[in-house]
Amino acid sequence: MSGKFLPKEPVTLDPPKDDIITKEYLSKCDAIKGIVFDVSSKASSYGPGGSYHRKDASHGLGKSSLKPEDAHSDYSQLDESSMETLDNWFTFFKNRYNIMGKLQVNESS
């Protein structure tokens, strides 16, 4: 893995959790590709009022977009370059933020 996605200062993370996270609980966290990260210590786009706050915004991260209409979880239509960008963001997050669990899959959708 390229070192460019590693934090400049070492980060001590808890072991990843495998809890199932409901969309209601997600209102306290943020997610990428269905994996919920605790970004509560950060502000900007992930904090209150930010484009990616309280949701899985995988599509927007892949497109490098802060537009509210791009901040959604369906990344199935991203092109190869955008998927690489999304994967890079996922690597960035998993090296900096604790993993709280996985989003609950809604069986009816």
TrEMBL record:
Gene3D superfamilies xref list: Cytochrome b5-like heme/steroid binding domain
Any one GO CC term of the record: membrane
Cytochrome b5 heme-binding domain boundaries: 21-104
Annotated family: Belongs to the cytochrome b5 family. MAPR subfamily.
Region annotated Disordered, chain positions: 43-79
Organism: Drechslerella dactyloides (Nematode-trapping fungus)
SMART domains xrefs: Cyt-b5 (SM01117)
Protein name: Cytochrome b5 heme-binding domain-containing protein
